[in-house]
Design a protein that fits this description.
The chain is 35% helix and 20% strand. It has 539 residues and is α/β, with parallel strands linked by helices. The chain folds into 3 domains: 295 residues, 4-Layer Sandwich (Metallo-beta-lactamase, Chain A); 182 residues, Rossmann fold; 46 residues. An 8-stranded mixed β-sheet has the order 6-5-4-3-2-1-22-23.
């Protein structure tokens, strides 16, 4: 049995583990890489998947970093079954089509930008989207629905059980039993592991003992705040902007986090901590449609009595859902106070970017982060203290008060990961850390070794590992150098300094040019200075 790490290996996004066993190839998840340009470039490098030779896919849940490349590999020839729970199928269908719209719009925007630089008749390279809406609409035909706790065999010798991971609606961790050559290997893939005691989800159930545990490590380096502290901090953010007659901007994942925030606002209203006249807007078409799915599958929730769709207007009288672009744009000219919940949660796409553009520079506004922010994303830059971020080709100052509330995370914190492992740990179990950044994995690895005396490995991108029951995993292909962004800073600085030297020489004759040309050159150099200042601030 061999595992290829095609994503979420020393990073948090792009979950995909390609497994070779019993003479076939299948994957656990097929997620999109999100973050900086180096990471996102991996989305186009799908030849390594050999899509037409994948027999089936086991999908743990609907989030784009776990499902987002399904349309691309279907386009490239994958024809097998995609196994998932009924809520995951419903949510993934919505999310993939929404993602495809974004891919098409971004490709169109880049094409227009390129033509503006080359001219209408100039040579320009055709820019194609990662995948199209048509590709996304083909994926649901390949979904095969499975229920929790019912073992099935997608192929002889491979038995799979989906169990409730408590992360988002329909999320699961997987228990695999692989039998080949008369030997059986038990493997658990945690997917995204939820937190006990969240507002909407059931607690993650206990996993069976396994030879190998592939465990997420998003928050392997820290714990979350408790519920009371979380509620208090959100109430503080609301009060800050309400008292200043301004807006509270909440970037939130459309699936799971938005619905949990709405329920939290309802509870704050019950406690008298939400002003009665504070308008609340959910400005995300995907979140609105996803909320309907929550209504349809409310029996999967820990609070089925709360109707997050039809009954929310009674629970939150000032709640409004904005579907159209015109309604969304109206929010940017409307005066506060108001709460605006919008996607995407990492601020790397969607309507949230417009709300940040119109509000992030206002000292009386607040930005409330309620989820993980990936490396290189605009949200991560704001959380890390950037003085400005780049949106729509302009620098937007960050003057709003920034709140980072970890207590809303749908991922288990450090101690919760350890508690979950404790209930299944046994001598000889091998632990493989995935879905986490290197720092978090190093800390979590040390704790697992100290507390459970288990072997721990954190594979890199494109690493391959051989598994056998009772044996330490053997790395057969190490992480490939091309998986890492090695920047030659000296060469880059030499080239930049060389161009500046040429600029200085040529500017000696700039005074001979017409006045309007001189002003144009001056303005362009000022723009370069602003870019350099932005880089210096980030460093």
């Amino acid at each position: 049995m061999k595992v290829h790490f095609l994503g979420a290996a020393q990073t948090v996004t792009g979950s995909c583990y390609l497994i070779e066993a019993c003479g076939i190839r299948f994957t656990v998840d097929c997620g999109m890489h999100q973050g900086n340009s180096e990471i996102e470039a991996r989305n186009f490098d799908t030849d390594i998947y050999q899509s037409g030779n994948i027999d089936f896919i086991l999908l743990t849940h609907a989030h784009i970093d776990h499902s987002g490349l399904l349309p691309r590999i279907v386009h490239e020839g994958f024809k097998g079954s995609i196994y998932c729970t009924p809520p995951t199928a419903a949510l993934a269908g919505l999310m993939l089509e929404d993602s495809a719209h974004i891919q098409e719009m971004e490709a169109e925007w880049r094409q227009k930008k390129q033509k503006r630089h080359t001219g209408q008749n100039g040579k320009s390279k055709e820019i194609v989207p990662l995948y199209t809406v048509e590709d996304a609409r083909k994926v649901p035909d390949q979904f095969r629905l499975v229920e929790y706790n019912k073992t099935f065999e997608p192929h002889p010798g491979i038995a799979v059980t989906y169990k409730d991971a408590g992360h988002i609606l329909g999320s699961a961790f997987l228990e695999l039993t692989v039998t080949e050559d008369g030997k059986t290997t038990r493997v658990v893939f945690s997917g995204d592991l939820g937190r006990p005691g969240t507002l909407l989800m059931h607690d993650p159930v206990v996993a069976s003992q396994a030879d190998y545990l592939f465990i997420e490590s998003t928050y392997g380096d820290r714990n979350h705040k408790n519920e009371e502290a979380t509620f208090d901090e959100l109430a503080e953010a609301i009060a800050y902007s309400y008292n200043n007659h301004d807006k509270v901007i909440i970037p939130a994942f459309a699936v799971g986090r938005t619905q949990e925030i709405l329920y939290c606002l309802y509870l704050l209203r019950q406690k008298g901590k939400l002003p009665d006249d504070m308008p609340i807007f959910v400005d995300s078409p995907l979140a609105i449609r996803a909320t309907e799915v929550f209504k349809e599958f409310k029996d999967y929730l820990d609070t089925p009595e709360i109707d997050l769709s039809g009954n929310m207007s009674a629970l939150l009288p000032n709640l409004k859902f904005t579907l159209s672009a015109l309604e969304s744009q109206a929010l940017n000219v409307m005066k506060g106070p108001a709460i605006i919940i919008s996607a995407s949660g990492m601020c790397n796409a969607g309507r949230i970017q417009h709300h940040l553009r119109h509000n992030a520079w206002r000292p009386t506004a607040s930005i409330v982060f309620v989820g993980y922010q990936g490396v290189g994303t605009p949200g991560r830059k704001i959380v890390d203290g950037a003085s400005s971020i780049r949106l729509f080709n302009e620098d937007v100052a960050i003057k709003a008060k920034v709140f980072t509330i970890g207590g809303f995370s749908a991922h288990a914190g450090q101690s919760q990961i350890l508690d979950w492992i404790r209930k299944m740990a046994h001598p000889g179990m091998q632990v493989v850390l995935v879905h986490g950044e290197e720092k978090a994995q190093q800390i979590l690895s040390g704790l697992i070794k100290d507390q459970f005396h288990l072997s721990v490995h954190a594979p890199g991108y494109l690493e391959e590992m051989a598994l056998a029951a009772g044996a330490t995993p053997e790395v057969v292909v190490t992480a490939q150098p091309k998986s890492y962004a090695h920047v030659d800073w000296e060469l880059l600085l030499e080239e930049t300094e060389g161009k500046l030297s040429k600029l200085r020489t040529r500017l000696e004759k700039a005074g001979e040019r017409p006045w309007d040309e001189q002003v144009d050159i001056r303005d362009r150099i000022l723009e370069l200075n602003k870019e350099l200042l932005s880089v210096l601030t980030q460093l």
